[in-house]
Specification:
Layout: H1 6-10, E1 19-20, H2 21-24, E2 30-41, E3 44-49, E4 51-52, E5 66-70, E6 75-77, E7 80-84, E8 87-92, E9 104-109, H3 111-135, E10 139-145, E11 152-157, H4 164-179, E12 184-189, H5 192-199, E13 215-220, E14 224-227, E15 241-247, E16 254-261
Parallel strand pairs: 1-4
Antiparallel strand pairs: 2-3, 2-9, 3-8, 5-6, 5-9, 7-8, 10-11, 11-16, 12-13, 13-14, 15-16
Helix pairs in contact: 3-4
Length: 272
C-alpha cells in the first residue's frame, strides 16, 4: 500500500460527500465501508470513511469507541473522532498511516458502550424535565455523561436550597417515566421559534446554547422536547438506576443529581 507523502497529507484535502449514519441509524454499530480520504495526525493517522457510524464527542456525550480493520490487518483502536473540513475523521494509531483512499475497511463499535450512553442521555433529558416540572425555573450549569458511560450528571442552580422532599418528588417523576415508558423520537424544526410555537410548554432550550436555522429535536412524547445532537434510547425505558445527590460546594443553591445505571432497582428516595 502506498504511504501518504507529507506534502499530500498537509495540503487541503478534498473529501467527497460522506454519509453520517450515527444519527440516522444509532442501532448500527458495525459496517463495511470505504476510505474516501486519509491524512496524518499527531496521534497517528486520520481517515474519513464513506459511511460513517462513529460519533465524535459533543453536547455532553463522549465519542464512540471501537476498532477499525483495514484489509487483512489487525483491528486498530479508535483513538478519537473529530470534525475537520466538513467531514468526520476517525483517529487511528500510527499503524494506519499507510492506508489510502479507496481501501475497504471494517468498522466495529463497542455496542454496549454506545447503548449505555444512549440510555444515559435520555436519562439526562428526563431529569432536567422532572426538575423543571417540580421546581419551575432552574439554571442548568452542567449536563454530561461521564467518559466511561458509568453515570450521568446534571448540575443546577435554584433560587433556594432544595430539600429532601424535592429530591423525592424528582426521583419519583423520573422513575415513573422509566416504568411507564414513552417513545423517544427525533424530529426537525425549521427554527427554534417554530419549535417553540409547535410544542409550547413541552419545548425547552438551554440558555447555554444559541441555535440558528433548522434544529434537531429529541421528543419524549407528551413530556419533553429539546434541541439536541446526541444519541438517545428509543424510549424512556432506560432501565433501573440509582439517583445520588451531590452538593454544589460553597453555593448552597447549587446542587447536582447523578444517575447511575444498576442491574436491578436497589434504592429510591421516599417511601412507596
Amino acid at each position: 500500500m502506498a504511504v501518504m507523502s507529507r506534502r499530500a497529507a498537509n495540503r487541503r484535502i478534498h473529501v467527497e460527500r460522506q454519509k453520517q449514519l450515527f444519527s440516522a441509524q444509532p442501532d448500527l454499530t458495525s459496517i463495511v465501508s470505504t476510505i474516501i480520504a486519509a491524512r496524518t495526525h499527531p496521534l497517528g493517522a486520520a481517515v474519513a470513511v464513506a459511511d460513517n457510524i462513529v460519533r465524535p464527542a459533543g453536547g455532553g456525550e463522549p465519542r464512540d469507541r471501537g476498532l477499525v480493520r483495514c484489509a487483512d490487518g489487525p483491528g486498530l483502536e479508535i483513538l478519537g473522532a473529530e470534525k475537520y473540513e466538513g467531514s468526520t475523521w476517525v483517529i487511528l494509531p500510527a499503524e494506519a498511516s499507510a492506508v489510502i483512499s479507496g481501501e475497504q475497511v471494517f468498522v466495529e463499535l463497542d455496542s454496549a458502550y454506545r447503548q449505555r450512553r444512549r440510555r444515559l442521555h435520555t436519562a439526562v433529558h428526563l431529569a432536567i424535565r422532572a426538575m423543571q416540572n417540580h421546581l419551575g425555573s432552574i439554571h442548568v450549569v452542567d449536563a454530561r455523561i461521564e467518559e466511561d458511560a458509568g453515570s450521568a450528571l446534571v448540575a443546577c442552580r435554584y433560587s433556594t436550597p432544595i430539600s429532601d422532599t424535592d429530591i423525592v418528588a424528582i426521583d419519583r417523576a423520573i422513575r415513573s417515566e422509566v416504568l411507564n415508558p414513552r417513545p423517544v423520537t427525533i424530529l426537525t424544526a425549521k427554527s427554534v421559534e417554530c419549535a417553540n410555537k409547535s410544542y409550547g410548554d413541552l419545548f425547552r432550550l438551554s440558555e447555554r446554547y444559541t441555535l440558528n436555522g433548522r434544529v434537531r429535536l429529541v421528543c419524549i412524547k407528551g413530556y419533553d422536547v429539546n434541541p439536541c445532537s446526541g444519541l438517545h434510547y428509543h424510549s424512556t425505558d432506560i432501565g433501573p438506576y440509582e439517583l445520588n445527590v451531590e452538593a454544589g460546594g460553597d453555593d448552597p443553591n447549587r446542587f447536582a443529581i447523578r444517575i447511575v445505571p444498576t442491574k436491578v432497582w436497589t434504592s429510591w428516595f421516599g417511601k412507596e
